[in-house]
Amino acid sequence: MKLFPIYTWTRGIRNFKHRRDKFSHLPWAQGAILLGCVLIAMLLANLPFTRDAYHNFLSTSLSLNAASPDGFTLSFPKGMTVNSFINDVLMVVFFFVVGLEIRREVDHGELSEPKKAILPVIAAFGGVCAPALIYVFFNHGTAASSGWGIPTATDIAFSIGILSMLGRKVPVSLKIFLTTLAVADDLIAILVVALFYGGKINFLLLGIAALVICFVVLLNKLGEKRDIFYLIPAFAVWVLFYYAGIHSTMSGVVMAFLIPMAPRYNRAYYYRKRAQYRRRITEYDAIEDPSDWPNGPQRHCLRRLSHISRNCIGMTDRLEHSLDSWVNFGIMPLFALANAGVTISDPSYLNIFRFSPELGSVSMGIFFGLVLGKPIGITLASWFAIKAKVGAMPSNSTWKMLFAVACLGGIGFTMSIFVDTLSFGDQAPEVMAGLRDMGKIAVLLGSLCAGIVGYLLICLVNALEGKSRETE
Q: Are residues 324 and 306 in the same domain?
């Protein structure tokens, strides 16, 4: 009877783990958690009894400081706070995984065949250019002009999550189209951040980083596939990028494209070693006490088999598999908690039609860039590509449904907020903070509106096309 509570407790833990794993595999799970974190961050940043603690915690210093008696001081990483740790360290892992996903798609995915990739790639460029032009239209020549990159990104988690909720209402070809578009969009966003949102470049440190990268390329060419020879250079490249003025998250993308895809051991080696160690395990059963399973020599054989099995999977696949859950359910929620919490000290921040000759209108540029620019740019670019016979219309789809799906491309969120944190650095601190806060609110409102409009339009188009098919 005494064991009953323990049994109930352990059974409850097993059931919780099962439900957690089942939930984590749902396509909309990541989007739901991110949305919850956004709401929590907004509450923490605006409730009177949590506002100060929230901002004070994010600004807490995490740098390691050392001082010598003669007055020499060293701080590493320089100026690191909780907020910058999330944005400059944890987000490196996010960009690393994004780089691995892009590389997989380029090598043997939707971007591997030019005919399959060309339409979503062209559409992605249209979906970047149109929002940027709308933003520039509202903010040209003002203090907010440098934020043109904010409304150009698509958040793959939210957009694909909404598509999964719609089920069969969306043709499979359009789901692939939006997924491929989002991957290409991520690559363009990475290039935008690298080229336009870095700091003052230290070319000496950048040159050292280039030498380290060349060394890694050489190791790859020589066939080196051990993890340690890539993890240590990856840390060195991050440090060099951090101090060189190139945004440190770009180091994650660079290293993702340098890691070897081929496994360390081939099929023949695995089968040979597996037969060898299985034979040894059987022999050690006869030598040692059979009840002592596994005995010492057998444990050694099993460890070697485990090591060989692990290295029969390419490093890129292993890293992506092991980091994917940490990114989706750890790093991204932390990013949302740290960056989506905007203190609405001025109610006019909620007014997306706010405009001034000096500051422009961050809100209108971002909101209309996401809600209008994204679907219009994606649809127009697709139309030109198809009419020019460069690309082909996704099967079983119509222009109405393609436009409705393109509306989901206006869900910017993660990358848009990330670019917002990098923008307006050339302004006075108080002006910069105000512009960034207005930008974040506009991203949240624009992404929410784009998601709702896209969902309703897809349902409406599906209903109309269903009725037209019935009449035929």
A: no
Structure token digits, residue 77 = 């990483």
The alpha carbons of the chain give a radius of gyration, in whole angstroms, of 26
Residues contacting residue 306 through CB under 8 Å, at least 6 positions apart: none
Residue 42 lies in a domain: yes
| Contact assessment for residue 276 and residue 285, using Cβ atoms and an 8 Å cutoff | no
Please name the helix (run of DSSP H) or strand (run of DSSP E) that holds residue 279, with its range, or none: helix 267-287
Cα separation, 378 vs 374, whole angstroms: 6
Amino acid at the residue 416: S
Split into its structural domains, the chain has a count of 2
Domain enclosing residue 295, as ranges? 267-310
Q: How far is CA 329 from the centre of its chain?
A: 12
CATH at residue 148: 1.20.1530.10
DSSP state of 353: T
Same domain, 283 and 337: no
Same-domain pairing of 278 and 410:
no
Check: CB of residue 298 under 8 Å from CB of residue 281.
yes
Query: Taking the chain (472 residues) in consecutive chunks of 10 residues, what is each chunk's mean pLDDT?
Result: 54 61 67 83 88 88 69 65 85 84 74 74 92 92 87 80 78 82 81 74 86 92 86 89 78 85 86 88 73 78 88 86 85 84 74 73 91 95 91 85 92 85 76 84 91 91 72 52
CB atoms within 10 A of CB 266: 11
Q: Which pLDDT tens digit goes with each residue over 114-160?
A: 766 788 889 999 999 999 999 999 988 888 888 899 998 888 777 87
